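Tokens as discussed.
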């Protein structure tokens, strides 16, 4: 690689320097020689060499021009490795990855400052992936695997959990990076589901219900739902009753199935 320039904080550049953790991430991806891999933010290539050795095809998307340039140079002789110098959030990923279902795995130590928008982008394109193995800030990871009634449970738990089996693989301490981040990290695996975990009716309504229910954590579910105007106030009580949900509860106490039932009830209203 090129001379090592100071890592850029604005791009979330905390580079992995621990060989043991790198090997554990590669193992968690369960690679086989037929795999096509997308790596988001390859940086100085801590994961990329091992991925290139084990996969049929490797696509690297790196926003830092200098690092992308160095990666292009490093893999110039590797026909199966392609480097895109660009922003993963601006790229037309669907056009780049093609249409074949479950054709790709994603392996990445994500830039933490934009990990949530990246997760939602991957959620949109889930049909293209067979597995994601992602390093995230531990706090974000805890939200993804949280259970109802705990403070980490919220919008990302439910919206990502509707479409993925998510598993926390292991925790990574700050000492495994250069520079060391202030926070702990976690590696999680995501396996896309063929069907949503619960039948939600109109998914746009489900997303609004979930976001509305957590918009004001201290308020009751009924008050939160009134504020997001998904149903006329006089009909809301009836819908909650039909679903067997007490409107005085708080959003964080509802299970995925209860949110789904509420969403089905409200979706019917929208169809009339
Ligand atoms: N994979 C490397 C590793 O583990 O050492 C680097 C990981 S570092 C946490 C995140 C990487 O994402 C950096 O290389 C950074 O430049 C890159 N990055 C930041 N924002 C990006 C974006 N919008 N699109 C693509 N890459 C981005």
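Sequence:
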């Amino acid at each position: 690689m090129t001379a090592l320039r100071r890592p850029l904080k604005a791009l979330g550049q905390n580079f992995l320097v621990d060989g043991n953790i790198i090997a554990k991430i590669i193992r968690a991806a369960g690679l086989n020689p037929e795999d096509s891999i997308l790596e988001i933010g390859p940086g100085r290539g801590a994961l990329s060499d091992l991925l290139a050795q084990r996969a049929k095809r490797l696509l690297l998307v790196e926003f830092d021009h200098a690092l992308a340039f160095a990666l292009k140079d490093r893999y110039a002789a590797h026909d199966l490795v392609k480097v895109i110098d660009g922003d993963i959030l601006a790229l037309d990923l669907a056009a780049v990855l093609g249409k074949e279902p479950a054709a790709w795995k994603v392996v990445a130590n994500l830039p933490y400052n934009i990990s949530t928008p990246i997760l939602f982008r991957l959620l949109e394109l889930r049909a293209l992936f067979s597995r994601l193995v992602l390093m995230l800030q531990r706090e974000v990871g805890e939200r993804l695997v949280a259970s109802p009634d705990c403070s980490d449970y919220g919008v990302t738990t439910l919206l990502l959990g509707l479409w993925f089996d998510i598993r926390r693989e292991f925790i990574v301490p700050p000492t495994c990076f250069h520079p060391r981040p202030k926070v702990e990290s976690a590696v999680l695996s995501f396996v896309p589901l063929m069907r949503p975990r619960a039948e939600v009716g109109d998914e746009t309504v489900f997303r609004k219900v979930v976001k509305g229910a957590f918009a004001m954590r201290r308020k009751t579910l009924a008050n939160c739902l009134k504020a997001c105007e998904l149903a006329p106030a006089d009909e809301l009580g009836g819908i909650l009753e039909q679903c067997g949900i007490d409107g005085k509860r708080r959003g964080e106490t509802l299970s995925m199935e209860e949110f789904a039932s509420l969403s089905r009830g409200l979706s019917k209203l929208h169809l009339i």
